Structure formats: C-alpha cells, structure tokens
Amino acid sequence: MIELAPSLLSCDFSKLKQEIHTIEDAGCDVLHLDIMDGHFVPNITFGPVVIKGIRKLTKLPLDVHLMIEHPENWITQFASAGADWISFHPEATDDAGKVIELIKKQGKLAAIALNPDTPLEVVEPYLQELDFVLVMTVNPGFGGQSFIPEPLEKVEILSQKGVRVEVDGGIKLENVERVVKAGAQIIVSGSGIFKTEDPGATVRKFKELTTKTQRHRVHKALY
Ligand code: DX5
Ligand code: ZN
Known about the structure:
Blueprint: E1 3-6, H1 16-25, E2 31-36, H2 48-57, E3 62-67, H3 75-81, E4 85-88, H4 96-105, E5 109-114, E6 132-136, H5 152-160, E7 165-168, H6 176-182, E8 186-189, H7 191-194, H8 199-222
Parallel strand pairs: 1-8, 2-3, 3-4, 4-5, 5-6, 6-7, 7-8
Helix pairs in contact: 2-3, 6-8
The chain binds D-xylitol-5-phosphate (DX5) and zinc ion.
C-alpha cells in the first residue's frame, strides 16, 4: 500500500484539531510534521511541545522531518513528545550513524532526508540501518514550492534495491502518478492537500490515484 502523509505545514493552524480530523477521517495514513530551526533552513516552525499536543489529537503515526542543525541533540525530546518516525538531514550533523543509533534506541523508525542535490552515495553506508529514505523534490524550507523532477532518479534506484522511499515536496494530484511510478512508498503533500477547496476530498482522490497507479506498477513488474 502507498501511504499518504499530509504535511501540516500548509494547514490552518487556528483550527489544527479540525484539520487533522478531516484528513484522518478521509483516510490518510501518517501525519508529516516539518520541524525547522531558522539555521539549517531559513524558516522556523514548531518543536516538541506542539508535537506533544498533536499526539493527543490523533492515533496516526507521526512522521517528524527534522530540518535542524545538530539533530543528535533533539532525538530524545522528539521521541518523548510522540514522534514515531524521525528523519534528519546528513548535512546537519557530523555523525549520521550516531543519530540513527539514537533514533533506534528510542524504538522509532529512522530515515535520512536527501536534498534534491545531495547524491545517493551519502545514504548508501547507512541503508542497512535505515527504515526508509526521504527523497526531497524541493529544497527544504517552505511549503508550496514547485516540484523538482530530477531526484526521481534516486527514487527509482533506491526502490529497485528494495529500499522504502518517501518523497516530499511539490506533490499534487496532478503529478503524484509519476512519483508512484518511480517507486515511492510514502507520499508527502502539504499545499497539494490543505490549499485545495476540500482537503478531505483531495485525500480520498490521492488515495484512489496512488492505489490505482501502484496496481499498474505491480502488474507491470509481474508480467
Ligand atoms: C519542505 C517540507 C515539506 C513541505 C511539503 O521543506 O519538508 O514537507 O511542507 O509541502 P508542499 O507539498 O506544499 O511542497
Ligand atoms: Zn517535510
């Protein structure tokens, strides 16, 4: 099954509870939570306190995407706040192996996030330990940017190796098929869901489309 992970970055935070319930009731699988520190990326979002609040609002797995310097200093706090999956950027730390170890020690799923220009070689030494790889199709920092197609090549290579891949940035109903065809297992979409007129209906359309496209992909691989 292809999992859909709406990014709350583009939701209306004045009605966070309603926004979460709308997409959860419509059948999304995961919540993608973008943590920005104003250093690693030129934007600031929210931290463990807000994750703790969100944890009380939903049973969905919380997919915490850390766009922060020195993620090693924050793994325990995010894990205790309720994160289930934790991804980080290798450029933000001197010891990616240690960050993965910390995440695993907390019993959480670990992922490395690759910027559009970060080569695959960076993640290769860690593939055994990682639960998935997050391939970015925008430069991290803001929601609502345009999709960059080149990183899909990394998605193809990783998925052919049997690696689970999450793709994040600029994904909308109009281009999700090509992302699934490249081999994505987890799809993040922020503005593509929350900036549409009816986010619940959009989630349902995403699910229909990804299920249909995946069926084609499996069929093609078998015959
Ligand atoms: C970008 C974030 C993304 C972003 C996705 O820095 O990591 O998760 O919120 O939003 P859209 O789908 O609007 O590109
Ligand atoms: Zn993200």
